[in-house]
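Tutorial, part two.
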Amino acid sequence: MKIRLIVDSTTEIMPEYKDRVHVVPLTVFFGEKSYVDGVDIDHNTFYQKLIESDVLPTTSQPNPLDFAKEYEEAKKNNEACIVIALPAKLSGTYQSATIAAQDYDNVYVIDSGSVAIGTAILVELALRYIDQGLDVKTVVEKIEEEKKKVIIIALVDTLEYLHKGGRLSKSVTVAGAVLNIKPVLSVIDGNINAIGKAMGSKRGNNMLSQEIEKAGGVDFTKPVLLGYTGISNALLLKYIEDSRPLWENDLENLRYSTIGSVIGTHAGPGAIAVAFFKK
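Running the prediction step on this input gives:
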């Protein structure tokens, strides 16, 4: 039986995989105005609006019917479904996919435990297993196990958006701006954690690399993906240069993607992130 792989629109699928993955979009709200993520609004437009807006945008999960449409198509084509969704701790997307699955056989919904580029590398690994000819239950079992090893570590360029989102006080935000403090965050098992802070981008880049090693190092036999928020990739390219010793013996080229609304809303433009499977 063929397998249909389904994700939500917060997953940063690389271009070479887009025709193999079915996407169910979230909705992004700027005030009263709504946009279908990835359809009515792309990443560049999102960040332009984010910079111009006085209030943070919000997102709304797909409803169960959005997932049911995909399941129905799969049923017509005699396909099994694997859904890899935003963590239940961060969104109701997983719940919507699960509710819709109750009316169908051969539909498996996985809480990714990650976001954006972290979910993307999990999807790439699932496609690798599918290409090996594994049956749907085996693929699901393997992904449920491997998702525990996915880590995102990110360096945030500005404290402004963490403050707007109510995660930092005004005084801490002002002091951070004066001292050029860059927070380092991790996303592990659906939790976003502050794991350190550095003064300036150079020290921040060094800390990012140190935290990758501290997490257990990178398993280079599995997908690795970098990402950035905002319109410019300049800070990411600087990080890639600064961290070259970390990658140069194991990867021919580092792939990277823009990161959209879920992380971008809280991190703001200028954040850089690394998603990998720990050893």
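The longest strand covers residues 191-199. In part three we will examine how such features are distributed along the chain.
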